Structure formats: structure tokens, C-alpha cells
What does this fold into?
Amino acid sequence: MVARPVVPDGPAPRRDSRRAEILAAFTRAVAERGYDGTNFGDLAVELGISKGTIVHHFGTKDRMLRELHEGYMRRRLAEVQLIWERLTRPAERLAAFVQLGVHYQVVDRTATIAFQREVVRFASAPGMETSQALRHEYRELVVGVLAEGTAGGEFRPGDDRLRTLQLFGAVHWMWTWFDPEGPRSASEVAASFVDTFLGGVLTDPGAAQVLGHPDGEVARVVAEVVRAARAPGLDCDVDHTPS
It folds into this structure.
């Protein structure tokens, strides 16, 4: 099953450098202090501009949050599309999803924290419909991979939507405990996640270790795709470097 791509409503967001700079500062502030702790006054002081300039570009703080969420999900979907071109087996694709979830705690950490710490609170807020649709599209890709793998005999039968929620739930709170500078590298954590999750769904659990190996084919493709996604030409609204 492949979800239909989301088509945004209205005109595309403006891409001038000042606007991108403001959105990047907002993203950092939400990651560090949360949405309620972020205000136009602090952003204006940090950037050396007036609050009126921020209002001119975005109007409201809600609009900034909406663009943060939508930009984040569009980057994630763009990366998955690149992976789909390289990896075709459901087990490989599922392992890639897991590894990507861990990778984001490093290569797009600031935006990941900003997105994850507020996504539940604002998931159903008015104006977030496109963000909701993009997240639904992403979830449906995982559901579809699980269903395809089950039909092909790679995965044990199970509730694919529940298993998808389990996967996302495991990765969603990584920002609260994972330190990119800590004793466990992202590659080690990703390998452990793949071994645990895929080991539970594969008909051959022993294959999980190969799929999650830091030097394996899936890890190599994921790393290459993440590097490619950071290159000019894809939808990148904020700084992707670790905070």
C-alpha cells in the first residue's frame, strides 16, 4: 500500500533568507524551551530585528509552528522516496525506517526535538490539517511495508497499525534520553532498535542482526540518502546540523 502524496493548500511558503533565518531561530527556541516558552520578542532580540519583521513574514506563532511541522514531514517523506528507489524488500525498507528514526536525532536534531516535543499537543489543532495529512502519509507507508512483508512471508502476521504505532512510539521520545555526544552512537542505537523491532516481526528473527548492522547495506543506503537530502534541491527549511 502506498499513500497518496499530500498536495499543500494555497501558495508555497516564501523562501527568502531572512524568512528561513527566522524559522530556524523559532525551531531552535521550541526545541530548547517549548512552544509556550517561545515568543516573538526573544526571537527579535536574538536576530537583531523588530517583532514587526517577524509578523510581516509569518503573521502568528501558530503559522510558524505549522510551517515547522510541514517542512519537517516533507523532508522525511522526500528521504523515504529516495530510499524506496534503493531498497525494495519490505524487511530492508522497515529496517531503514527504524534507522532513519534514530538518525534524525543527530542530523536534524533541533527540528526533530521541536517537532516531537509539541506534535502530540498540537496534532489536532486548527490549521494543522496538512501536517496531519503528511504524518498520516508517513505512517501509512510503514503500515504498507508491514502488510507487504506479511503477504510475502517475510513478516509474521499481526496488527500492522498497532505495530506501526509501537515503532513510532519507541522512537518518538528518543530526544529525552539520547545524547549524540554520549557513550552510545546513533549507529549502535539504530542497530539495537532494528534487532529488537524486526526480530519481533520477521519470520526469520536471525535476519534482523544483518539488517541492522552498522556496516550493512541498509545502514549504508540510509546514510547516503540522508547526505543527499541535505544537498541543495530538496525542501530544507532549517539548519540540519546537530544542536
The domain at 71-229 is CATH 1.10.357.10 (Tetracycline Repressor; domain 2). The longest helix spans residues 61-86.
